Every structure is written in C-alpha cells, then in structure tokens.
Amino acid sequence: MTNVTQDVRDDFVRLWGSLGTFWGVSPTTARVFGWLFSRSEGADAEEMMTALDLSRGAVSMSCKELRDWGLLTSERPPGSRRTLYSSERDLEKVVRHVVQIRKQREWDPILENLEAWLPRLESESGDDAEFLAERLKAVEQLVELADSMVERLLKGGTVTNFGLKVLVGGAARRSKKPRTSDKAS
Amino acid sequence: MTNVTQDVRDDFVRLWGSLGTFWGVSPTTARVFGWLFSRSEGADAEEMMTALDLSRGAVSMSCKELRDWGLLTSERPPGSRRTLYSSERDLEKVVRHVVQIRKQREWDPILENLEAWLPRLESESGDDAEFLAERLKAVEQLVELADSMVERLLKGGTVTNFGLKVLVGGAARRSKKPRTSDKAS
DNA sequence: CAAGGTCTTCAGGAAATATTGAAAATTCGG
DNA sequence: CCGAATTTTCAATATTTCCTGAAGACCTTG
Q1: Which of A33, B31, B83, B171 has a 20 to 30 A CA-CA distance from A157?
Q2: Domain extent at residue A38
Q3: Helices and strands: H and E segment counts in chain B
Q4: A60-96: pLDDT as tens digits
Q5: Is residue A182 part of a domain?
Q6: Both A67 and A96 in a single domain?
Q7: Which of B125, B137, B166 to mutate: most A Cβ within 10 Å?
C-alpha cells in the first residue's frame, strides 16, 4: 500500500470522526467505524489500537456501541482467540440503522411529551394557554411529518428509492455540477 | 397565567434545550429560542435572564447566535433603550434555516474533500487504493443524494410541500395513531 | 480444570464545551 | 459631545463529555 492511499484513508477517518456528533456518537467511535469501513478486511482490537492510537478500553467500547447501532459485526474465527470486527458494507443499511435508532431515542419521546402537554393546556382558559397550545400544535405537526417521512424511509427499501420519490427532476444523478450556496456572502 | 401553563412552558423549554445538540447549538441557546417561541410577545434581555436563569453574557451570546441562524429578530422600539427580541414565528422557516446552515457548514466540506481524494486514488494502482476508491464513491453518492434532497427542500417552498412529495400514501395526516417501533424488544 | 490470552467494565483523569462576570464598547437622549 | 443605560466580548471557570488503564470476567485450549 502506497503512502497516498494511506494518507487518503487517514484523512477520511479524520473527517468521518469529526462528523460523529452529526449522527450521534463520539469522534472516537466514528473513527473506528470509518476506519473499518475503509478496509476490505475485518480487523482485531490490537490492530485498531495501533492504527487509531486508542486504548484497549476505547476500542472495546466503541465496537460495543457500533454493534448496538447495527453498524458492525464481530466474529471469532476458529483457531483464533481474537474477535474479528467488520463494518457493515452497505452504506444504505448504515443510514437506515442510524435513522431508526435516533428516531426511537429522540423523536418518539418528543411526541410523547407533546401529547401529554396539549390536554393539560386545553383544560386551561387564558389567552396565554391558548397561544402556547397553538405553538405546540405547530411543533407537533412538523415532528409528525418528519416522523412519517422517516417511517417511510425505513420501510421503503433503499435510501435511494426514497430519494427518487423526492427528486423527480432527476437531480439525483451523480454529477459533477457545482453545488449551489457553496460560499454564500 | 396559571401554573399549569407556566409548567408546560418550562417543560417545553427544558425539552427544547436538551434537543439543542440535535440541530447544532448549545442547550442554553436552544432554551432561549424555545422560550421566545413559546411567547406571543418579544422580550428584552433582562426578562430572559430572570426567566431562564442566565447571565447577561449568555443571553447576549445566545441571541447573537440565533440571529446568525436567522431564528430571531431584534429591534429597538422608539422610546426604549432596550433591544426587544422575538423568535421567528414560522416553524417551517426555522427548519429551513437550520438545514441550510448545517448543509453549508457540514455537508459541503465533505463533498469537497471527497472530490479531492478520488483523483488522488485514481492515480494509484494497488488493490487497496481501488477498494478505498470504491467505498469513497459510495459515500459520495449518498452524500450527493442527501444534498440534492436538501436543495429541493430549501428551494421547494414549504417543508410540508416537501413532505407531501414523499408521503404519497397519505401518512402525513396529523393523526393519533400510535407510532410504530415505539418500544422495540 | 488450570493457564494464558482476550474482552469488558468503570472509576478517575483529561479534553472539549459551555457559561459566567466584569471590563470595554456601543447607543441614545440631553 | 457627555453620561447613563444597555449590549458585547472574552479570559477565567464550571460543566459535560470522552478516553484511559487496570482489575476482573470470560473464553479457549491443552
């Protein structure tokens, strides 16, 4: 393996790590996934410790978390004592798993709260209660819309399929066209 | 205003605050927005300090950040020396602004990186470089798909309109039906 | 079933992030 | 312009989040 390849891999792992918060895990956990995803073969804990400069505990915890998210598999090959980890290879599956888990953990509780608050406000009279109820209903409506879209994404086969429903104009084609709003004033 | 209304408002502000990281701001900043959004009238800094138990500096910084995101407006009414802050009232606009800014700050750099990495790998030969290029292309494809969808959301008028494109089955209706996958095994 | 090897857990330390508080800047009326 | 009222800024501090390291659990093989 050349240095170029290794450099690109390192950059990719770094970027992916910095994106961890975006999908709800720590940078280290995200780096572990990125690293595994960038390799054609699985790896054992020792290898990750070296490659990513992590403690044994960090590797173990990250892998556990990624397993919980359904983003990697672990197996123990016969004849070896070490666990071999491999990332999920299908990125769409990765997206679906992440979306599903975040939905359960974060969106569903919001809706439960909203559903508990509105009846309480309806039993009140003042203008203030009415106004707040209005606003909460607006929130509920939007969250429920997002919720339905997520449901559809999860049930509807591939992410790409989901995208095609939206991108009727054909903008989904992989293209080199410059993105808009790149460097707004 | 009754205690019930105030209690609901407080709970709402607390929840909204805990969601801050989800859309990329600190809990305090998120609470400020939630509080303003829950009120029919604007408020001055003094009032926020009391209601949200924040320092003067925190209020100023939070409001500045929210203004940057386009989520609140500030005006100085004639005859008063205090700035009056009001939240954006249209939740859809809020969503669009948040999405747009996060796209610019986070997604666009990803695509730029990917576009720089792939040519470097293509000038390499080994299996390893080829494999990594494959994976990066998969990432690029997905990010570009997401990108296109976001563009469409931003350009396509309302969030609700966007949702209707996806929810052809009518699942978008505001309903009381229990959400699926609430408490999975 | 003992021993060596590997993984997991978790208390404690380290790093990153958020918030305060007070000094400096700004704004406005006089 | 001056001075009071208000906002902004930012170094210091507090808080949260993350990672380490070592003790113990768990396997696997001889």
Answers
A1: A33
A2: 3-87
A3: 9, 2
A4: 999 999 999 999 999 999 888 999 999 999 999 999 9
A5: no
A6: no
A7: B166
